[in-house]
Amino acid sequence: MSNFVSAAELDELLKSEAPLRLIDVRWRLDRPDGHADYLSGHIPGAVFVPLATELATHGEPSEGRHPLPSTQTLQDAARRWGVNQGDIVVAYDDAKGLSASRAWWLLRQGGVDVRVLDGGIRAWTAAGLPVADDDVQAEPGDVVLDEIGGDAISIDEAASFADSGVLLDVRAPDRYRGEHEPLDPVAGHIPGALNVPMAAHLDAEGRILDMHTLQATFAAVGVTEGTPVAAYCGSGITAAHTALVLDEIGIEAKVFPGSWSQWSNTPGRPVAVGDQPG
């Protein structure tokens, strides 16, 4: 079963009797609070999810910008969204699935049947489907989550991961090469990491590319079925999208949630620059 649903498939799901909960996870680096965008038009029935407080927690710089929430925090949030045991959760955003994939990654670890709307809210509106402007407050749910965190790796595991597998840096190439760093104190990448940007998996409308193309992209850097693989990005959000795409083609991946924000704020960690792993 695919991790993605199209706008048409979601419309049919909403019309059916399927137990479904929609979550709107609008978040971008340039606009981290997407609530105003949500209120300007969302899929009817969708609950707004503040990524920074419900899909992450706050910590010291040495923990990264978006440390994982506790299982209890995530469970409390999911119940606030109205998620009941056995529900299907569909997450979407307006950033090509970047932030919705964070919800997918966490909820999947918690044992939830979760999908991502392919193309996000833009695909929904492009299909001529309706939007609403209310602030949905759901009836509290009763979902019980499994313990999360098993699909994450620590900073020490990230440091040695390339010795036995493939460590993917999924940021833009200029950040990987160390030419540009808008957020963190040091520019560059983790030694041994290979650069496969998130954008490589999407078309111009932000929809997932075909399976053959995805497989070829990862095979080009040595990632095929059975390859140990982990991904990192700036702060653990975009890397979840790569885990989502890899899962779609049948490859399990870990995520380094601290990502470059943790690595670059931890004294003594080596830094590579340029277009080679280093």
TrEMBL record:
PANTHER family listed in its UniProt record? SULFURTRANSFERASE, THIOSULFATE SULFERTANSFERASE
TM ranges: none
Q: Which UniProt keywords apply?
A: Repeat, Transferase
A Pfam family recorded for this sequence: Rhodanese
Organism encoding this protein: Microbacterium foliorum
Q: Read off the InterPro entries from this record.
A: Rhodanese-like_dom (IPR001763), Rhodanese-like_dom_sf (IPR036873), Thiosulphate_STrfase_CS (IPR001307), TST/MPST-like (IPR045078)
Record carries keyword Chaperone? no
**Where is the organism placed in the taxonomic lineage, from the top?**
Bacteria, Bacillati, Actinomycetota, Actinomycetes, Micrococcales
What Gene3D superfamilies would the database entry show? Rhodanese-like domain
GO MF term list: 3-mercaptopyruvate sulfurtransferase activity; thiosulfate-cyanide sulfurtransferase activity
Its protein name is Thiosulfate/3-mercaptopyruvate sulfurtransferase
| Domain Rhodanese as annotated: residue spans | 16-133, 161-272
- Known EC number(s)? 2.8.1.1, 2.8.1.2
